[in-house]
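Quick question: who can interpret this fold?

. . .
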Amino acid sequence: MSSIAIDGPAGAGKSTVAKIVAAELGFVYVDTGAMYRAMALHVLGRGADINDASAVAGACESADISIERKNGEQRVILNGEDVTGRLRTEQVSSAASVVSVVPAVRAKLVMLQRELAVKENVVMDGRDIGTVVLPDAALKIFLTADAEVRAKRRYLELIAKGEEADEAKILEDIKKRDQRDMTRAEAPLKKADDGVSVDSSDMSAKEVAAKILELWRNRSE
């Protein structure tokens, strides 16, 4: 099996690009964020207190989460059940942000993500895919963009959804998140030693995807 790892900061366009690349290659796009949401759904379903790390750790042991591609769409499977349509509720979103910091949850999901990469050709995006989750990925991309560009993208995205947004506040939040991600003790955000940096500041998602596909094909030859 082959794998492509796409890492980078918030707002760099990782998910959008990863989906395009996966569709073009016929690979499975692995949304690691959706896997954390599925874990949160599982923990809630087990009746565990999400604020009790021990309870969360115990509940996560019985979770089997995988990603499948059906009719061109990503489906999230939790213990044999397609739960894709249940992952975007406010309750699950809030719970995911809480359980994701529990070390046992992270360890479990890293294991499951690695198992997926053994069974399927995958494109996986996140913060530490190339450095931690899939250190042997055939191609590792570090996708970034200027903070101001990322803030503008997020601002326009929210406005398009009819939501109120403050571009200056978004920029401030992005800079703070970058700092946290790059300086955290465990698996900090950084380019893998054998990774390729791609700056999307002046590129569309399709242009970035084309660049990654070019790198992939050149590497495979």
Remarks:
- The chain has two domains: 1-27+121-221, 28-120.
- The longest strand covers residues 65-70.
- The chain has a mean pLDDT of 92.
